Amino acid sequence: MRRFFVGPENIGGGTIVIDSRDDLHHMIKVLRLKEGDSVEVSDTVEWEYEGVIESLDEDEAVVRITDKQAFSGEPHTRVTLFQGIPKQGKMEVIVQKCVEMGVSEIVPVFMERTVVVDKGKFGKKIERWNKVSAEAVKQCRRGMIPPVRDAVKMKELLADTTGSGRPDVFEDFDLVLFPYENEKGTTIKDTLLTVTSPMYTEIKGGAPERVAIIIGPEGGFSEAEAEAIVNGGGCSVSLGKTVLRTETAGIAALAMVMYELEL
Fold this sequence. Notes:
Layout: E1 3-5, E2 11-12, E3 15-18, H1 21-30, E4 38-42, E5 47-56, E6 61-70, E7 78-84, H2 90-101, E8 105-110, H3 122-140, E9 152-153, H4 154-157, E10 175-179, H5 188-195, H6 198-204, E11 210-215, H7 223-231, E12 235-237, H8 246-261
Parallel strand pairs: 1-4, 7-8, 7-11, 8-9, 10-11, 10-12
Antiparallel strand pairs: 2-3, 3-6, 4-5, 5-6
């Protein structure tokens, strides 16, 4: 059954209105849907629906709701990926696969060794990456579309405006994972086993629910960046004995987090 996404304002009175031009074109020209066909619809916030198409034309589709339930395909653990911006093409793979794995949002980051330069047209890339996210969600049947946020610079990510010694953004997370190729002593497995141990969960009131993963670009992190992340409270971890590409590292780390905290 095909899945579509609308805002909560498009739902009411036992019906759902789909008015996205792209969705309507896909429904009519590609899927060849017609009145009486069944579809799934998510409100992107909390609820997902099953319904039957009552009317369909180039302006809108009206779907009669036959079933409603809370999201069943969304992870309890919310993971934000801070991704050092890679060269052209790689980011689309990162977005697609991380969305399939359950990421909650992705933040592109300009780091010291980022090769890509923002020439004033970076917004178009963000728009493209959000489309990739939306397409991936339809395939893996999630309830929400993880947003790809506007890009930030590393100094903005690590900004400490309160003088706490911890970057402001880190305060939003229970755990900040920093996969680092020079880390030899602590593996991501060690850290995840620690934060799911009975002693940790008793002290903290449970396992981490909001997790950040920070991944470097092709050239990795500079020493200054690595030091700033660790000093700010990031957990430096190894992903294994081999050094992974930037387009592999985030996916691998996310898979490990979901395996340990979610399944």
